[in-house]
């Protein structure tokens, strides 16, 4: 394996669909009102095997859960698979170095299993952290999640638009050990934090505001917008 394809940890990335739609401003319609999976990413490694193409047949047994928990939030069509293809070819082909993730079914299946195990939606609800027109303090959210999971999460926000003052919560990352896929801190003493970032595979030009690590201070956790039919 090439040196630039070595990685040390996995990052389980979940995002808030309402913020995703605000970020890209594409054809999002009625985004889910619960946190969904963005991806399961090895740090410092991308596109490890460009000849290992995505095959929908290999995950056909997972499609019901994939559409519910790992949806393509940006596009309204429920049959789109471009997002999953992108996640597999960019991240899954690197995660496959580990036996537990060594096929498309194992990789996506592990992502779904971690999503259910971490149960972020319920954890936030129990902590009293719910979408609201009132603001939270980012440190309160981070501390509450750290107490629940026993590790420090990385929280990313959408910076305020011109004329706004408050950042918007968009993504929560929890780090996982490479060997046995258990929770771990995202950084260890002396290890630089991962700078892994991802924009959506399409609509890059539309994403004029990108997610970045939340700054200290107030944060908006936006409720779903009521759409008129």
TrEMBL record:
Keywords: Disulfide bond. It comes from Galeopterus variegatus. The lineage of its organism: Eukaryota, Metazoa, Chordata, Craniata, Vertebrata. This is Ribonuclease T2. Its main location: other. InterPro entries: Ribonuclease_T2_eukaryotic (IPR033697), RNase_T2-like (IPR001568), RNase_T2-like_sf (IPR036430), RNase_T2_His_AS_1 (IPR018188), RNase_T2_His_AS_2 (IPR033130). It is found in: Lysosome lumen. Belongs to the RNase T2 family.
